[in-house]
Structure prediction request, 115 residues.
Amino acid sequence: MSERGRKRTYTSQFRLTCLTKLSEQLAHSRSREEAIGVTATSMGVPITTLRRWAHEELGPARAESADEPLRVRELTRENEVLRAAVAELTRLANGEGAVPYSVSYLDGRDLSAGR
Prediction:
């Protein structure tokens, strides 16, 4: 069998050395992927192998924040409010009549009461 077709095995000490070098390289790199590429090349390890080790040891490169679903809901609501405001402004710009009172699209308060 050729060298390329043979599965290589690494000692746990070598894996630890690679992960240590990767951690050091992370401080000097713009991304985890860049650090993996540099470290894998210098250690003679396939990038996919080092990437797998990093994932197992450090977790996913981009972990989803616990607040992410809440932020998506907030942005979705803001988008709905802005679309409604654009639709209303477009309607007014086309001369389709004035609104009898003004409503703040941000918090729903009647703005004409203060006039």
The first helix runs from residue 12 to 26. Residues 65-98 form one domain. The chain has four helices and no strands.
